[in-house]
């Protein structure tokens, strides 16, 4: 399609000769006007009066009724990327130059013009505009790609962080399982406490019996702890049998066990019904997850506060939610939870609860999501995939 050139000059001699020359010398579609108001109507008026959209507008400076700058300013507003040119007599040159920058005029051409020079200026203006348009398109495309790239980068960063976390867990796991193994061996040696206790009981030696029983109890406790640590450090993916479960029954069983827990008894435990969703899993492991989460919630809560455990079934699976209104976590704590041995509870915590919970949930093909705000409380959601996708 040919570029459209508008020509406006109150001198009929100028419009006639220039439009004839342009039609002969260029491929452009030329529209010539002697009246600036008529030109303005064609360029910016309502749909009925309007001519084709201009690519180039060349206007005389001094015209009766409206000067060329006023006309071009109006054209600029309606057609932001049209190429605008001003024709000036020698006497108007200075005034025209100062006005040019305000309107964004491409060139001014002095009368009398040199046709070759004028054609060249118009063509250069059109070329420049084409380039600017291409540049704008390229720029949009570039920004889009850039946004895509930064999204991928973020994704990559998250994947890497997960990888680092997994690696770190695995490294800690190897050290810990070595230690636990060694400790377990040494501890079994303390098994002689049991026969000592038996003998002391037979002989009625109360003092020895008392010491031996302390030893036996301590050994059992330490053995149980070693078992837990081994369990934690066990290689990822180690098999345990999973089967379709009534999640509500698992929840009820875990909550029943928790009613005897000293910390949990301090709070009001509320269970919100959520039907009987089925998930594939290991009942013992899942109840371990829930026990860890509810104990954390209770430990974070003041006496008598409410801890809510709810079950929700959706198209994307089953959500198990533990919500408390306790101390919450600062962003620093939130960033570190699940890290082995990270605890803010000093002697009262081992800092393994959430790490174990997260791993069990992972092994079930689910996600564990923690939202928390210091001073407000914490919501932990365990999402289990629907049957058939676990
Ligand atoms: N519901 C919660 N509210 C506030 N802080 C929490 C909550 N759950 C976990 N935390 C924070 O995360 C830390 C790690 O929790 P995690 O359960 O892994 O270990 P722990 O509770 O300290 O020890 P344990 O191994 O006995 O569970 C806690 O020490 C605590 O700071
Ligand atoms: Mg805990």
Furnish the topology, listing elements before pairings.
Elements: E1 4-8, H1 12-25, E2 29-33, H2 36-44, E3 56-60, H3 68-78, E4 83-88, H4 93-103, E5 107-110, H5 115-189, H6 193-203, H7 206-233, E6 243-246, H8 247-258, H9 262-265, E7 268-272, E8 278-281, H10 283-300, E9 306-314, E10 317-324, H11 331-336, H12 353-363, E11 367-373, E12 377-384
Parallel strand pairs: 1-2, 1-3, 3-4, 4-5, 7-9
Antiparallel strand pairs: 6-8, 9-10, 10-12, 11-12
Bound molecules: adenosine-5'-triphosphate and magnesium ion.
The site of magnesium ion has 5 residues, from helix 10.
User: Looking at this structure, what is the CATH superfamily of the largest domain?
Assistant: Histidine kinase-like ATPase, C-terminal domain
Terminus-to-terminus distance: 60 Å
Q: Give a list of the ligands.
A: adenosine-5'-triphosphate, magnesium ion
pLDDT < 50 stretches: none
Strand order of the largest sheet: 2-1-3-4-5
Q: Helical region count?
A: 12
Name the beta content range: 15-25%
Number of domains: 3
Tertiary shape? rod-shaped
Query: Can you name the CATH architecture of the largest domain?
Result: 2-Layer Sandwich
- SSE string, helices as H and strands as E: EHEHEHEHEHHHEHHEEHEEHHEE
- Per DSSP E runs of 2 or more residues, the count of β-strands stands at 12
Average of the residue pLDDT scores: 88
Multimerization state? single chain
Q: Helical percent range?
A: 40-55%
Largest sheet: 5 strands, parallel
User: How does the helix and strand content classify structurally?
Assistant: alpha/beta
């Amino acid at each position: 399609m040919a570029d459209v050139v508008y020509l406006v000059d109150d001198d009929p001699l100028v419009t006639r000769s220039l439009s004839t020359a342009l039609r002969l010398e260029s491929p452009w579609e030329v529209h010539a006007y002697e009246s600036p108001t008529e030109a303005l109507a064609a360029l910016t008026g309502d749909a009925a009066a309007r001519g084709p959209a201009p690519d180039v507008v060349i206007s005389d400076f001094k015209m009766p009724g409206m000067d060329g700058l006023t006309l071009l300013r109006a054209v600029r507003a309606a057609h932001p990327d049209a190429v605008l040119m001003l024709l000036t007599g020698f006497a108007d040159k200075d005034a025209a130059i100062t006005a040019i920058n305000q309107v964004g005029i491409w060139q001014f051409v002095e009368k009398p013009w040199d046709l070759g020079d004028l054609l060249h200026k118009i063509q250069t203006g059109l070329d420049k505009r084409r380039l600017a348009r291409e540049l704008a398109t390229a720029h949009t495309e570039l920004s889009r790609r850039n946004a895509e790239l930064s999204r991928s980068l973020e994704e990559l960063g998250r994947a890497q962080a997960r990888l680092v976390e997994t690696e770190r867990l695995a490294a800690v796991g190897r050290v810990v399982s070595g230690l636990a193994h060694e400790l377990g061996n040494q501890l079994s040696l303390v098994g002689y406490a049991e026969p000592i206790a038996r003998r002391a009981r037979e002989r009625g030696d109360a003092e020895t019996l008392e010491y031996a029983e302390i030893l036996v109890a301590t050994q059992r406790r330490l053995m149980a702890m070693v078992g837990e640590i081994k369990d934690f450090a066990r290689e990822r993916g180690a098999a345990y049998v999973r089967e379709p479960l009534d999640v509500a029954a698992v929840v009820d069983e875990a909550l029943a066990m928790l009613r005897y827990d000293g910390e949990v008894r301090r709070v009001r435990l509320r269970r919100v019904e959520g039907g009987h969703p089925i998930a594939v899993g290991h009942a013992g492991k899942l109840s371990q997850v829930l026990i860890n989460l509810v104990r954390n919630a209770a430990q974070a809560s003041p006496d008598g506060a409410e801890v809510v455990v709810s079950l929700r079934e959706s198209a994307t699976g089953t959500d198990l939610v533990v919500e408390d209104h306790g101390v919450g976590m600062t962003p620093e704590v939130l960033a570190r939870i699940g890290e082995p041995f990270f605890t803010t509870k000093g002697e009262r915590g081992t800092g393994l609860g959430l790490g174990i919970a997260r791993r069990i949930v992972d092994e079930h093909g689910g996600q564990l999501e923690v939202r928390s705000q210091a001073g407000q409380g914490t919501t932990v959601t365990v999402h289990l995939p629907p049957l058939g996708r676990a």
